[in-house]
UniProtKB/TrEMBL annotation:
This is Amidophosphoribosyltransferase 2, chloroplastic. GO terms for molecular function: glycosyltransferase activity. Residues 1-72 form the Glutamine amidotransferase type-2 domain. Keywords: Glutamine amidotransferase, Glycosyltransferase, Transferase. InterPro entries: GATase_2_dom, Ntn_hydrolases_N, PRTase-like, PRTase_dom. The keyword Chaperone does not apply. It comes from Noccaea caerulescens.
Length: 327
């Protein structure tokens, strides 16, 4: 059945006597294996989930691998030999929890370094560093540590509101920002504020945040973004908007700064991001930053204006290989 699968996927399913885990040949999405003290094998998308059930992390499910667990143990099969790794870099920027190990790297350490790089490459005189919670917190800690400026909670997040950038309508997204984030006037009033966020998608959330900070008395608002500008849609399992709706696709950094209303704006540079990844840089997917898709979306499977999501398919067949994983 796996021969017929197309797209980016990490799946686990159960039969009467087997537990099966499979990951797509490019490894776009993470999938890990662990084991409990009683010998039970478990799978999860992040290592932090293993901690919750007191399971020990053993390894990733390799890209293109099928693992079959039964009473005789764990058996490995390959969908494709020597696959081209294209792991989603956004797992380290936004999606995964900081206490996870994803693609063999600490998410916390990655985000902290991204913040440090921002403080080095794009410094600004400020009195306080704050984060857009929760995904911007670790990068903000890195920025503050490198800049030698205090980190404080200038925005408090309500955990009863979901992710605003994937809401279907702009009206709901705008209202969601107000419900989700509340400024702390005592931290912000009269201060030159650096606010660190993980990314800018449409720009609407960022503009609302800048307005909230100014209304709370911030003297200056400087935005620092712990990722490069997002200029292209994702076709590998993320419900991002169409490219036309991505603000960095149609505006320069200066134009984005003017649109969201901050005093200065800086993004993590793409080249520095790859430099941080070192030899592993070629194994990541950067399509949302470059528009260069490792698997080209077919013409009838692009995202339409309005943010409708249409999943993409991998091109070509996938062959089953017996005898285990081939590196």
């Amino acid at each position: 059945a796996c021969e017929k699968l197309q797209g980016a996927y990490s799946m686990v399913f159960v039969t009467e006597d087997k537990l099966v885990a499979v990951r797509d040949p490019h490894g776009f999405r993470p999938l890990v294996m662990g084991r409990r003290s009683n010998g039970a094998v478990v799978f999860a998308s992040e290592t932090c989930a293993l901690d919750l059930i007191e399971a020990t992390y053993e390894r990733e499910v390799y890209p293109g691998e099928v693992l079959v667990v039964d009473k005789d143990g764990v058996k490995s099969q390959c969908l494709m030999p020597h696959p081209e790794l294209k792991q989603c870099i956004f797992e380290h920027i936004y999606f995964s929890l900081p206490n996870s190990i994803v693609f063999g790297r600490s998410v916390y350490e990655s985000r902290h370094v991204f913040g440090e790089i921002l403080a080095t490459e794009s410094p600004v005189d400020c009195d306080v560093v704050i984060a857009v919670p929760d995904s911007g917190v670790v990068a903000a800690l890195g920025y503050a540590a490198k800049a030698g400026v205090a980190f404080q909670q200038g925005l408090i997040r309500s955990h009863y509101v979901g992710r605003t950038f994937i809401e279907p309508s702009q009206k709901i997204r705008d209202f969601g920002v107000k419900l989700k984030l509340s400024p702390v006037r005592g931290v912000l009033e009269g201060k030159r504020v650096v606010v660190v966020d993980d990314s800018i998608v449409r720009g609407t959330t960022s503009s609302k945040i800048v307005r909230l900070l100014r209304e709370a008395g911030a003297k200056e608002v400087h935005m620092r973004i712990a990722s490069p500008p997002i200029v292209a849609s994702c076709y590998y399992g993320v419900d991002t908007p169409s490219s036309e709706e991505l603000i960095s696709n149609r505006m320069s950094v200066d134009e984005v700064r003017d649109y969201i209303g901050c005093d200065s704006l800086a993004f993590l540079s793409f080249e520095t991001l790859k430099k941080h990844l070192g030899e592993d840089s070629r194994s990541f997917c950067y399509a949302c930053f470059t528009g260069n898709y490792p698997v080209k979306p077919t013409e009838d499977k692009v995202k339409r204006g309005g943010g409708d999501f249409i999943d993409d398919g991998l091109v070509g067949g996938i062959n089953n290989i017996e005898g285990g994983w081939v590196r």
